[in-house]
Design brief:
CATH architecture of the largest domain: 3-Layer(aba) Sandwich
Strand order of the largest sheet: 2-1-3-4
Number of strands: 4
Bound molecules: FE2/S2 (inorganic) cluster
Number of domains: 2
Helix content: 40-55%
CATH topology of the largest domain: Glutaredoxin
Distance between the termini: 57 Å
Structural class: alpha+beta
CATH superfamily of the largest domain: Glutaredoxin
Length: 181
Amino acid sequence: MTTLTADMRRKKTATALTPPSGDARFEQLEGTMKRHQYRQDALIEVLHAAQKLFGFLEPPLLHFVARQLKLPPSRVYGVATFYHLFTLTPRGRHSCIICTGTACYVKGANHLLAAVSQAAGVEPGKTTPDGELTLRTVRCLEPCGIAPVAVLDGTVHGHETPETLREQVKGWLSRGTDGST
Ligand code: FES
């Protein structure tokens, strides 16, 4: 019984470490790691690339990165769960992250949040029922000089206004539903 459990565990680990053949995204990710010369201190850049390619960081992907960078999986998991920009679960097709750190808050981050929330009908931390948009908040993204800051599909936008954000979000949603709503 003990042997069987150990075998199963070994098999499971092997599966987790083997990228599906023919998935070009793994090759692209490999290319990113190669460009960084498989440096362990490039972990954040590699995870960022992985998330961009796969949409979210599922466990087999984190194991793959850990193996290629020769890092303990616990380290990779630690970084992936520490930074708010990374997600281990599926998200909407589009992503809107609003910084609610002090500088952004002072410059009206709560108005940005309310505008998106209202336009999309979604609460922070949630995804719209049609899977089009995930709205999230983070504490401070660092470019405080251009507050208030929002990250739209991975691109940082400074000096955001509720109007421009609302327009962007409505554009995403109408395209996603063929303008039926
Ligand atoms: S507080 Fe928003 S970027 Fe720093």
